[in-house]
Amino acid sequence: MRRVIAHARERIAQVEAVVLLVFCLATGAAFVFSRLMSEMLEGETRYIDEAVLLSLRDATDTSLPVGPYWLSKIFSDITVLGGTTVLALVTVATAVFLCIRREWASALFLGASVLGGWAISSALKLGVARPRPDVVAHLVEVHDFSFPSGHAMLSAATYLTLAAMLTRVEKSRQVRMFFIGLAVFLIVIIGMSRIYLGVHYPTDVLAGWCAGSAWAGFVWLFARRYLRPQRDPGQTLGE
């Protein structure tokens, strides 16, 4: 038993702190998602969901959002950043960049990871089949189910995965942090736009963030374990 414990401690000590952090965050996000889905299916979140949506609309006319007239236009533009077309274009552009860097495996893995996230999002929507909010008017047109928010989940899964792939081939710590910070910023404002526009409940967006972040976290862990960045052509073995 002592040997087993000593071996386990040795293995844990060999694992980098960032790997443990990402693993904990990914598993935590998956757990929060499962709890949100359970509470939502039991109807426990309906009151706060509707209260938040109503707080963002005029008390006398729920078709009118609070704030200046141009705010809804800004959020309508922002929400497009989480749409399928934009995410697909950004993914293809990043894959091409990786191919230029001769990161063939990373480019292929990126495409498979993003497609996997989209497949999971579609399956969850169809499985839960939560109707869209009906307490306020929608400010943009929507057609599919509500839980989890596809924009929130896909933007988290896609932008975080893109950042993860790019940080693997970038040497500068500042640039790597910029990639991650930009991804998080886009994910947050896209999710907020879905709530403001009245097309998702807050729990839809939170669940989407959790599911997408969990997927991106596990993708990063897999890539770190099995993918190795290509060496620069001019780099020698002694460098």
Care to describe what's here?
The chain has helices at about 1-15, 15-40, 45-55, 70-80, 85-100, 105-130, 150-170, 175-195, 200-225. The chain is an all-alpha fold and about 240 residues long.
Brief digest:
The chain has 239 residues and is mainly α.
Please tag this protein with its features.
single chain; 239 residues; mainly alpha; 9 helices; 71% helix; globular; disordered C terminus
Radius of gyration (Å): 20 Å
Portion in strands: under 5%
Order of helices and strands: HHHHHHHHH
Query: What kind of sheet is the major sheet?
Result: none
What is the secondary structure topology, with strand pairs?
Elements lengths: L1 H13 L2 H25 L4 H10 L13 H11 L4 H17 L3 H25 L21 H20 L3 H24 L5 H25 L13
Helix pairs in contact: 2-9, 4-8, 5-6, 5-7, 6-7, 6-9, 7-8, 7-9, 8-9
